[in-house]
Amino acid sequence: MSDLPDDFTCTITNWEYIYGLCRDVADEVRSAEFDPDVIVALARGGWFAGRCCCDFLGLDDLTSLKMEHYVGTAAKASDPEVRYPMPEGSVEGKDVLIVDDIADTGESLHHAHEYVVERDPSAVRTATLQLLDTSEFDPDFVGERLEEWAWIVYPWNFIEDMIDLIQGVMERADDKRFERADIRRYLATYHDIQRIEMEIAQPDRLDEVLAEMERRGVVESADGAWQLA
Ligand code: ADE
Q: How far apart, in whole angstroms, are the C-alpha atoms of residue 16 and residue 13?
């Protein structure tokens, strides 16, 4: 999220919705008569989807791969590399399904696909819960195609993302102290997160996020208002 511009639209999701997308991906895999032996879930966003797809498809072989986006001199920011290799022999001779949460540039799935192909599987397919039309990689199985680019706040990193977003708006706004209503207003203005949308997807969680921001030393609170620490 750190490379994004100041203003960008966010969509808050919940477990039920995302679980439905996992089911949709699994349905597509079944309809294509692809019967994977193992799922490779891309860390960390693909873990929930990978585990649910194992359940829907009746697999107990689940492994993980972490693609890291280095921002350094040697590699371009968009060139992900493998951080944690898979255990020896985890895909050789097997039908493999690689699963991730979202294809945005598509780089992670693209590189994971190359990495798995180099390890002599018998077949490899790729799946994503959500596909943005910015993706240059075309996964085989897609839960949902999104026409408009948005930052998707997934339930498994709701707190992490909301802390980043709230910290970002506090840094940007001219105010020093923020009441709950100010925070909600800035989230709506800069990220199109409307109060109603947030309360439907993740009810009553703003105070939890603010308390966690305080515990982590990001903000301080006094008299029902928060300011950056
Ligand atoms: N990771 C990469 N792109 C993303 C997006 N648009 N939303 C959520 N997570 C992402």
A: 9
Owning domain of residue 42: 12-146
On whether residue 106 sits in a domain, the answer given is: yes
How far, rounded to the nearest angstrom, does the alpha carbon of residue 17 sit from its chain's CA centroid? 14
Atom number, ligand 1, closest to the C-alpha of residue 132: 6
Ligand 1 centroid to residue 161 C-alpha, Å: 11
- Residue 75, pLDDT above cutoff 90: no
Separation of CA 105 and ligand 1 centre (Å): 9
Give dist(CA 181, CA 134) in Å, integer.
34
State the distance from the centre of ligand 1 to the C-alpha of 10, rounded, in angstroms.
Answer: 10
The verdict on 175 and 129 lying in the same domain is no
Instruction: Please tell me if the CB atom of residue 100 comes closer than 6 angstroms to any atom of ligand 1.
Output: no
> What is the rounded distance in angstroms from the CA atom of residue 50 to the CA atom of residue 61?
10
The pLDDT tens digits for 140-164 are 999 999 999 999 999 999 999 999 9
**What are the pLDDT digits (tens) for 56-73?**
999 999 999 998 876 655
**β-bridge partners, 68:** 81
